[in-house]
Design a protein that fits this description.
202 residues, mainly alpha, two-stranded antiparallel ribbon, two-stranded antiparallel sheet, 4 strands
Length: 202
C-alpha cells in the first residue's frame, strides 16, 4: 500500500496527504537553497565591490583618496553583507544536506532558531541598504540646505562602483526578506493540524 493511503471501513482507499506534504516540502526546500545561494553570492559581490572601491583625485598639490572607510554607512554595508553571506553559506550547506537525506524539518526549537536568525538578517540587510542609500543620495545630489556639496561629480568612478555594490545589496535584501517568509512557513506549518511524520530532524 502506498504511503499516505489508508483503507476505510468500506474498503475505499483514503488519502491522508503525507505524500503531497513531502512534495511540497521538497519544493520549498529547493526554493530555500536557491535563495540562500543568491544571498551568499550577492552579499559577497556587494561587499567586494564596495570594499575594493577607491579613487584618488589631486587638488592642487593635495591628494584626496575616496574609499569605503570614509563613510560609516558603507562600512556598515560591507560588514552586514559579510555577516549575511557567511550565515547564508552555513544555512545553504544545511539545506543541501537536508535535500540529499530527503529529511523534513520537524524540530520546533531548530525551526524557531532558523526563523529568528533569518528575521535578524533580513532587518540587518534592510538597515544597511537604507543607510547606504541615504549616503549615496547625499553624495550624488548633495544637501544645499546644510551646505553639503555633492562629490560624485568629482569621484565618478568611485560612486559608480559603490552604486553597483548597493544595487547588489538591495537585491540580496529582497531575497532575504523572501527567505524570512519561507522560514516562517517552515516554522508555522509545524503548528498546523495536518502534520505528517518523517525520519530526520533537519
Amino acid at each position: 500500500m502506498r504511503p499516505g493511503v489508508g483503507v476505510s471501513p468500506g474498503n475505499v482507499a483514503v488519502y491522508y496527504g503525507v505524500g503531497n506534504l513531502g512534495a511540497v516540502e521538497r519544493k520549498v526546500k529547493v526554493v530555500e537553497v536557491v535563495l540562500r545561494c543568491l544571498i551568499f553570492g550577492l552579499g559577497v559581490l556587494s561587499a567586494a565591490l564596495v570594499a575594493s572601491d577607491t579613487q584618488v583625485r589631486t587638488f592642487f598639490t593635495l591628494e584626496k583618496k575616496a574609499k569605503f572607510t570614509s563613510m560609516k554607512s558603507l562600512v556598515f554595508l560591507v560588514t552586514a553583507n559579510g555577516i549575511v553571506a557567511g550565515y547564508s553559506l552555513v544555512q545553504g550547506v544545511r539545506c543541501v544536506m537536508s535535500l540529499m537525506r530527503g529529511s523534513v524539518l520537524f524540530n520546533k526549537p531548530l525551526a524557531w532558531a532558523i526563523f529568528s536568525c533569518d528575521q535578524v538578517m533580513a532587518y540587518l540587510t534592510l538597515a544597511a541598504v537604507a543607510a547606504a542609500l541615504q549616503s549615496a543620495m547625499i553624495g550624488k545630489f548633495g544637501q544645499p540646505e546644510l551646505q553639503w556639496m555633492k562629490i560624485c561629480n568629482l569621484y565618478g568612478k568611485y560612486c559608480t562602483q559603490v552604486g553597483e555594490g548597493i544595487a547588489s545589496a538591495m537585491v540580496a535584501s529582497f531575497c532575504m526578506v523572501t527567505l524570512s517568509c519561507v522560514s516562517a512557513f517552515n516554522l508555522f506549518r509545524l503548528y498546523g493540524s495536518n502534520k505528517g511524520k518523517c525520519n530526520g530532524s533537519w
